[in-house]
TrEMBL record:
<dbReference type="InterPro" id="IPR018060">
    <property type="entry name" value="HTH_AraC"/>
</dbReference>
<dbReference type="InterPro" id="IPR014710">
    <property type="entry name" value="RmlC-like_jellyroll"/>
</dbReference>
<dbReference type="InterPro" id="IPR013096">
    <property type="entry name" value="Cupin_2"/>
</dbReference>
<keyword id="KW-0804">Transcription</keyword>
<protein>
    <submittedName>
        <fullName>Transcriptional regulator, AraC family</fullName>
    </submittedName>
</protein>
<dbReference type="InterPro" id="IPR011051">
    <property type="entry name" value="RmlC_Cupin_sf"/>
</dbReference>
<dbReference type="InterPro" id="IPR009057">
    <property type="entry name" value="Homeodomain-like_sf"/>
</dbReference>
<dbReference type="GO" id="GO:0043565">
    <property type="term" value="F:sequence-specific DNA binding"/>
</dbReference>
<dbReference type="Pfam" id="PF12833">
    <property type="entry name" value="HTH_18"/>
</dbReference>
<keyword id="KW-0805">Transcription regulation</keyword>
<dbReference type="Pfam" id="PF07883">
    <property type="entry name" value="Cupin_2"/>
</dbReference>
<dbReference type="InterPro" id="IPR018062">
    <property type="entry name" value="HTH_AraC-typ_CS"/>
</dbReference>
<feature type="domain" description="HTH araC/xylS-type">
    <location>
        <begin position="188"/>
        <end position="286"/>
    </location>
</feature>
<keyword id="KW-0238">DNA-binding</keyword>
<dbReference type="GO" id="GO:0003700">
    <property type="term" value="F:DNA-binding transcription factor activity"/>
</dbReference>
Length: 290
């Protein structure tokens, strides 16, 4: 049986949930839920899909998502190999908007927190000092038993994030989730196919057939659901893979271009600049300076 697109957490008595995740790979299903989610990757690499944002992830990746924002941390293919001994680890917090009561966030003292939660609806990520400080706070939260100290710990963490300035928005300004809970999982099929075949020449006819649609209907469907064309989506997946290879430092740019599905170096360089705003060599330099 196919997994539903929308996920609901199991009811718990506590006001919020803190989980330590240790699995062979992260949940491979494209989904959304009615809770806020703060997620830190401790171990594992792959491609992160949030709304219309596609980026590589690795240890230290810190993201805050608002309710009903579709997302997927897709581990690299090697994590799905049966012979692999690799493990992914992460810490995740889930909470509802009224986790401390229906009127709590309406108080004057909660203005900054209210603004943070509103921005999270578009997805947020932090870097630098805030990311390191939050990583420590999350680990401390996992050590606290359910009770008053854990609630205070979460509020202190959210307060720190609400005043931090080293953040980036993830989805584009015009993005909205148009998916419905009762839709089929066509987008899941498309994601899986592209992630498994992006180094190859992808056929629109093949993907449309996989989704059970004609190519023109599929193009309209995909653009409505993802806020980008299918070709733009494929390019971002390929560039995301190229970013991981650049960071790894084992291949030269020409090899990375081919491994990522580009047949000419000029096309690779042009699309890399369009998507990341940097040249491949500039991207590596920026990463090493973080």
């Amino acid at each position: 049986m196919k997994q539903p697109l929308r996920k609901d957490l199991e009811p718990v008595a506590a006001s919020f949930i803190v989980k330590e995740l240790v699995e062979p790979h992260f949940d491979p299903n494209w989904h959304f839920h009615p809770h806020y989610q703060l997620f830190l990757v401790e171990e594992g690499t792959g491609t992160r899909f949030i709304g219309d944002s596609i980026k590589p992830f690795g240890p230290g990746d810190l993201v805050f998502l608002g309710p009903n924002l579709p997302h997927l941390w897709r581990s690299d293919q090697v994590y799905f190999d049966k012979s692999s001994n690799l493990t992914t680890k992460g810490i995740v917090i889930y909470f509802a908007e009224d986790f401390l009561g229906t009127d709590f966030l309406e108080k004057q003292e909660m203005t900054a927190l209210r603004q943070l939660l509103n921005q999270a609806r578009k997805g947020l990520e932090w870097t630098g000092y805030t990311r390191r400080r939050t990583e420590t706070a999350l680990k401390n939260l996992t050590q606290k038993s359910v009770g008053f100290e854990r609630v205070i710990g979460l509020l202190n963490l959210l307060n720190d994030l609400s005043h931090a300035t080293d953040y980036r928005h993830l989805t584009s300004p015009g993005y909205t989730n148009t998916m419905k809970p009762n839709e089929t999982d066509r987008m899941q099929l498309v994601h899986n196919y592209v992630l498994g075949h992006f180094p190859d020449d992808l056929s629109l006819d093949t993907v449309a057939d996989l989704a059970g649609m004609t190519p023109p209907a599929f193009c309209r469907y995909f653009k409505t659901r993802s806020n980008k064309t299918f070709s733009e989506f494929v390019s971002e997946v390929r560039i995301g893979h190229a970013c991981k290879l650049l960071i790894g430092g084992k291949l030269n740019i020409t090899q990375i271009s081919f491994e990522s599905g580009f047949r000419t170096l000029s096309n690779f360089n042009r699309q890399f600049k369009d998507i990341t705003g940097q040249t491949p060599s500039g991207y590596v330099k920026t990463y090493r300076e973080l």
